[in-house]
């Protein structure tokens, strides 16, 4: 019996803060096994954030050593802090046939695509700007200053849409999760991911 690839797929999710990336991913992971990559950062943990759960919190020296050792698939300097996707975890999970999810900013997504062209880039769009604002405020995790900053960043993030393979408009959550599931299913069926399938084979007659 022929079987489709059992290699894992690297899914990179971006989109404005509050669009619903985390919510969609959490629901997806109830349906499809998906390892979530934890980023490393040099910024200080916020209250409630835990080492190895929200981020791996590194010193600037540790982070720079890891850059020098090619320990990141991608990294970026945002203001005075570094953020990066640790290479080992992602490569180990993919090699073990597991799907891996990254939630990173558009610059990071672009760098991942350059390093790993088989990565699937998905952009999560809010149904409207007004609804985005409503969701950020409703989540209640940011200060007023952070909300203003995130909303002003949303426009420039949406301008990077062309770099993505797929877009999901997160209006109805169930539909958005179904669409992401369909994207992953379609990617598994891509011929370029199934090069070990024979291109000819003899049809055997069913024995009666
Ligand atoms: P992100 O990870 O993109 O920053 P979140 O997943 O934290 O966004 O979602 C922001 C807020 O919007 C959360 O309070 C979440 O419950 C809500 N939300 C997410 N998707 C939907 C949806 N389809 N309809 C209504 N509310 C949603
Ligand atoms: P925060 O400090 O609010 O957690 O994150 C700040 C920004 O860093 C967000 O835009 C977030 O998407 C981005 N970020 C988080 N992890 C990574 C990562 O591993 N790589 C890159 N390039 N950006 C990241």
3D structure, described in words:
With 208 residues, the protein is of the alpha/beta class. It is 39% helix and 19% strand. The protein has 7 helices and 9 strands; from the N terminus they run βαβββαββαβαβααβα. The strands form 2 sheets. It has a 5-stranded parallel sheet with strand order 2-7-1-8-9, with helices on both faces. The chain has a 4-stranded mixed sheet with strand order 4-3-6-5. Strand 5 (72-78) and strand 6 form a beta hairpin. Helix 1 crosses helix 7 (173-188). The longest helix is centred in the C-terminal third of the chain and has 16 residues, at 173-188. The mean pLDDT is 92.
Measured by DSSP, the beta-strand proportion falls in 15-25%
| Coarse shape | globular
Q: How do the strands line up in the largest sheet?
A: 2-7-1-8-9
Specify Rg, calculated over alpha carbons: 19 Å
Q: What is the residue-averaged pLDDT?
A: 92
Small-molecule binders: adenosine-5'-diphosphate, guanosine-5'-monophosphate
- Helical/strand content category: alpha/beta
Main beta-sheet strand count, sense and barrel state: 5 strands, parallel
Helical proportion? 25-40%
Distance between the termini: 18 Å
Helix-strand topology string: EHEEEHEEHEHEHHEH
Report the count of strand segments. 9
The parts where pLDDT drops under 50 for at least 5 residues are none
Count of helical segments?
7
Main attributes?
single chain; alpha/beta; five-stranded parallel beta sheet; 9 strands; 39% helix; 19% strand; binds adenosine-5'-diphosphate; binds guanosine-5'-monophosphate
Topology:
Layout: E1 10-14, H1 21-31, E2 34-36, E3 40-41, E4 56-57, H2 60-68, E5 72-78, E6 81-86, H3 87-95, E7 99-103, H4 106-115, E8 120-125, H5 129-139, H6 144-158, E9 166-169, H7 173-188
Parallel strand pairs: 1-7, 1-8, 2-7, 3-4, 8-9
Antiparallel strand pairs: 3-6, 5-6
The structure holds adenosine-5'-diphosphate (ADP) and guanosine-5'-monophosphate.
Adenosine-5'-diphosphate (ADP) binds next to helix 1 and helix 5.
């Amino acid at each position: 019996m022929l079987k489709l690839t059992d290699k894992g797929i690297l899914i990179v999710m971006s989109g404005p803060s509050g669009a619903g990336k985390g919510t969609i991913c959490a629901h997806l992971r109830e349906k499809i096994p998906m390892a979530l990559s934890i980023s490393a950062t040099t910024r200080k943990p916020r209250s409630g954030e835990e080492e190895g759960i929200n981020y791996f919190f590194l010193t600037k020296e540790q982070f720079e050593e890891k850059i020098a050792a090619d320990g990141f698939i991608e990294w970026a300097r945002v203001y005075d802090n570094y953020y990066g996707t640790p290479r080992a975890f992602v490569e180990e999970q993919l090699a073990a046939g597991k799907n891996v999810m990254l939630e990173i900013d558009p610059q990071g997504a672009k760098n991942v695509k350059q390093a790993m062209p088989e990565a699937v880039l998905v952009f999560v769009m809010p149904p409207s700007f007004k609804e985005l604002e409503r969701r950020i405020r409703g989540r209640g995790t940011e200060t007023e200053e952070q909300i203003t900053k995130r909303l002003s960043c949303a426009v420039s993030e949406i301008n990077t849409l062309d770099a993505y393979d797929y877009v999901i408009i997160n209006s109805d959550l169930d539909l958005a999760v179904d669409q992401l599931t369909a994207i992953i299913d379609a990617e598994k069926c891509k011929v370029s991911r199934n090069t070990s399938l024979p291109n000819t084979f003899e049809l055997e007659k069913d024995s009666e």
